[in-house]
């Protein structure tokens, strides 16, 4: 980390390789478009490179980087309402052995959840994505979105309430 802060591009490249998938995943889940997500992730990494010498506590690098990526993605959402992909892997859907009806129901539920997530305000959607899809703690999310853990809990609660109501017909 210290070498990267001193301008060592090889050291920073190692950090990028370690975190680029998570950065892209976060931007994709906020933006819903792979092209926009790739652009936002790249811009976040460039910003991190430029700002890295100013980072005082190197132990917080991952949260700091995710905060940069989240803010970049949120800036892009201000002008539109994105579709929110739940994930790229189809492994979560039942396979053909489960039967076409089960596969169809699972696909429909996934699409309904993506649509419901797209209807959330960006702060709620971001907190929900970071908690439920990325598995981050309330404290980590609070640091990333620059809010208190209590505010994060409230946003996630409101997001869950909205999602339960939106998906009520799937019970």
Automatic annotation (TrEMBL):
<keyword id="KW-0731">Sigma factor</keyword>
<protein>
    <submittedName>
        <fullName>RNA polymerase sigma-70 factor (ECF subfamily)</fullName>
    </submittedName>
</protein>
<dbReference type="GO" id="GO:0006352">
    <property type="term" value="P:DNA-templated transcription initiation"/>
</dbReference>
<feature type="domain" description="RNA polymerase sigma-70 region 2">
    <location>
        <begin position="15"/>
        <end position="80"/>
    </location>
</feature>
<dbReference type="InterPro" id="IPR039425">
    <property type="entry name" value="RNA_pol_sigma-70-like"/>
</dbReference>
<dbReference type="GO" id="GO:0016987">
    <property type="term" value="F:sigma factor activity"/>
</dbReference>
<keyword id="KW-0238">DNA-binding</keyword>
<dbReference type="InterPro" id="IPR013249">
    <property type="entry name" value="RNA_pol_sigma70_r4_t2"/>
</dbReference>
<keyword id="KW-0805">Transcription regulation</keyword>
<keyword id="KW-0804">Transcription</keyword>
<dbReference type="InterPro" id="IPR013324">
    <property type="entry name" value="RNA_pol_sigma_r3/r4-like"/>
</dbReference>
<feature type="region of interest" description="Disordered">
    <location>
        <begin position="82"/>
        <end position="102"/>
    </location>
</feature>
<dbReference type="InterPro" id="IPR036388">
    <property type="entry name" value="WH-like_DNA-bd_sf"/>
</dbReference>
<dbReference type="InterPro" id="IPR014284">
    <property type="entry name" value="RNA_pol_sigma-70_dom"/>
</dbReference>
<dbReference type="Pfam" id="PF08281">
    <property type="entry name" value="Sigma70_r4_2"/>
</dbReference>
<dbReference type="InterPro" id="IPR013325">
    <property type="entry name" value="RNA_pol_sigma_r2"/>
</dbReference>
<dbReference type="GO" id="GO:0003677">
    <property type="term" value="F:DNA binding"/>
</dbReference>
<comment type="similarity">
    <text>Belongs to the sigma-70 factor family. ECF subfamily.</text>
</comment>
<dbReference type="InterPro" id="IPR007627">
    <property type="entry name" value="RNA_pol_sigma70_r2"/>
</dbReference>
<dbReference type="Pfam" id="PF04542">
    <property type="entry name" value="Sigma70_r2"/>
</dbReference>
<feature type="domain" description="RNA polymerase sigma factor 70 region 4 type 2">
    <location>
        <begin position="110"/>
        <end position="163"/>
    </location>
</feature>
């Amino acid at each position: 980390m210290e070498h990267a802060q001193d301008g060592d591009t090889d050291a920073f490249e190692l950090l990028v390789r370690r975190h680029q998938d998570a950065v892209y995943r976060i931007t994709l889940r906020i933006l819903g478009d792979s092209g926009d997500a790739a652009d936002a992730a790249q811009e976040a990494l460039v910003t991190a490179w430029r700002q890295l010498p100013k980072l005082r506590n190197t132990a917080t690098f991952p949260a700091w980087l995710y905060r940069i990526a989240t803010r970049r993605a949120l800036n892009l959402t201000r002008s539109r309402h994105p579709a929110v992909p739940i994930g790229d892997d189809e492994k979560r859907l039942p396979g053909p052995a489960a039967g076409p009806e089960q596969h169809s129901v699972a696909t429909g539920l996934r699409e309904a959840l993506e649509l419901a997530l797209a209807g959330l305000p960006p702060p709620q959607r971001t907190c929900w994505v970071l908690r439920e899809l990325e598995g981050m703690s309330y404290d980590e999310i609070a640091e990333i979105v620059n809010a208190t853990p209590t505010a994060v809990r409230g946003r996630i609660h409101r997001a869950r309430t909205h999602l339960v109501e939106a998906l009520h017909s799937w019970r």
